[in-house]
């Protein structure tokens, strides 16, 4: 198994995409720390996956510096090292631009852009312990289309690409790679609440592969970037949207 004896951190782990990533890493022999700010959802994830010896669940808020420091301290105490960090936590409300309050703008940017910075900075000493550290950031395909009514989310996710490229140059000397994925709109519970079935079906028909995107469609790209096969790939973005952006 590719990830035996590897220590993995996944933020937003109790969500649709995060839980799929967590499940696949566990199936390939990794020890996973599932991070989320929703205690009930985390407990349900642990119950569903049933891997108590391989799965560590920590409630933490990625937008809080003190919470990220707490996360790092807990991981330090339990594992002492981190091999792979997947910055996946996110929030994506749909709000017309003129109705976005500064409070909402800051909250969305804090989770989607500040979060990866705070988590990465707090865990970096532990990642440096690894002989081949990997960081995978989740951006969004919305940055290519400039999706309306999500200006705050699109802005934050575009910032993730700059963060990824710059951090790759910083950490290459430590043999740590930093890459990103840009998912298309994906069938997860929050998305299904925000968008109608007709809207999602219309989006699917705009793709080269004419079906809805699922969380499992993203897992392969994440695990590839986290694997030894991607040891000489850094500062890059893999777009995983079924061909939406070239149709």
Overview of this protein structure:
With 247 residues, the protein is α/β, with parallel strands linked by helices. It has one domain: NAD(P)-binding Rossmann-like Domain (Rossmann fold). Helix content is 47%, strand content 15%. The chain is built from 9 helices and 7 strands, in the order βαβαβαβαβααβαααβ. The protein has a 7-stranded parallel sheet, with helices on both faces. The radius of gyration is 17 Å and the shape is globular. The mean pLDDT is 93.
User: Separation of termini?
Assistant: 36 Å
- Overall mean pLDDT stands at 93
Specify the overall morphology: globular
Name the CATH class.
Alpha Beta
Number of domains: 1
State the helical fraction: 40-55%
Strand order of the largest sheet: 3-2-1-4-5-6-7
Number of helices: 9
Number of strands: 7
User: Strand pairing plus helix content: what structural class?
Assistant: alpha/beta
* Global Rg: 17 Å
How many strands, which pairing sense, and closed or not: the largest β-sheet? 7 strands, parallel
In short:
With 247 residues, the protein is an alpha/beta fold.
What is the secondary structure topology, with strand pairs?
Layout: E1 7-11, H1 16-27, E2 31-36, H2 39-49, E3 55-59, H3 65-78, E4 84-87, H4 102-129, E5 134-138, H5 142-145, H6 151-171, E6 177-183, H7 189-194, H8 197-205, H9 216-226, E7 237-240
Helix pairs in contact: 1-9, 3-4, 4-6
Question: What descriptive keywords fit this protein?
Answer:
247 residues, alpha/beta, Rossmann fold, 7-stranded parallel β-sheet, 9 helices, globular
């Amino acid at each position: 198994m590719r990830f035996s004896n590897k220590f993995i951190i996944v933020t937003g782990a109790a969500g649709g995409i995060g839980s799929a990533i967590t499940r696949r890493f566990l199936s390939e022999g990794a020890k996973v720390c599932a991070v989320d700010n929703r205690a009930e959802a985390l407990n349900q994830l642990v119950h569903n996956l049933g891997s108590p010896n391989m799965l560590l669940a920590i409630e933490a808020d990625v937008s809080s510096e003190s919470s990220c420091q707490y996360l790092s301290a807990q991981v330090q105490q339990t594992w002492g090292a981190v091999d792979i960090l997947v910055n996946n936590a996110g929030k994506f409300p749909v709000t017309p631009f003129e109705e976005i309050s500064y409070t909402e703008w800051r909250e969305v940017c804090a989770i989607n852009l500040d979060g990866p910075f705070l988590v990465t900075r707090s865990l970096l000493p532990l990642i440096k312990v690894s002989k081949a550290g990997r960081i995978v950031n989740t951006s969004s395909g919305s940055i290519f289309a400039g999706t309306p009514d999500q200006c705050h989310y699109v802005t934050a996710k575009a910032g993730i690409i700059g963060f990824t490229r710059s951090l790759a140059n910083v950490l290459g000397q430590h043999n740590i790679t930093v890459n990103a994925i840009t998912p298309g709109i994906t069938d997860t519970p929050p998305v299904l609440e925000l968008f109608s079935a007709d809207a999602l079906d219309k989006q699917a028909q705009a793709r080269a592969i004419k079906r809805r995107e699922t969380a499992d469609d993203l897992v392969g790209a994440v695990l590839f970037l986290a694997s030894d096969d991607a040891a000489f790939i850094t500062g890059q973005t893999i777009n995983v949207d079924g061909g939406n952006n070239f149709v």
